Amino acid sequence: MPKTMSKTLAAEIADRTMAVVNPQNRAIALDAALRRHGFPLSAGEPPRELTDRAELLAWLRTTYAPPN
């Protein structure tokens, strides 16, 4: 059974990723946060531009959260 992400954790990861000032480093921060919590980045391709928190949060929930 694959690991699932809570809505709270998805929001925390999105917030921490968006807190990185340089957009080019956000992908590195996202990868580090996902690995720290045991989620593989290879589960899906993140949004191309990591500039919108809502888009990143939606991607995290779609990719890693269980369907309700």
3D structure, described in words:
- Helix content is 56%, strand content 0%.
- With 68 residues, it is mostly helical.
Number of domains: 1
Helix content range: 55-70%
Q: What percent strand?
A: under 5%
User: In angstroms, what is the radius of gyration?
Assistant: 11 Å
Structure annotation, total helices: 3
Overall morphology: globular
Topology, number of strands:
0
Compact summary:
The protein contains 3 helices and no strands.
Which labels suit this protein?
single chain, 68 residues, mainly alpha, globular
Q: Layout of SSEs?
A:
Elements: H1 7-18, H2 23-36, H3 53-64
Helix pairs in contact: 1-2, 1-3
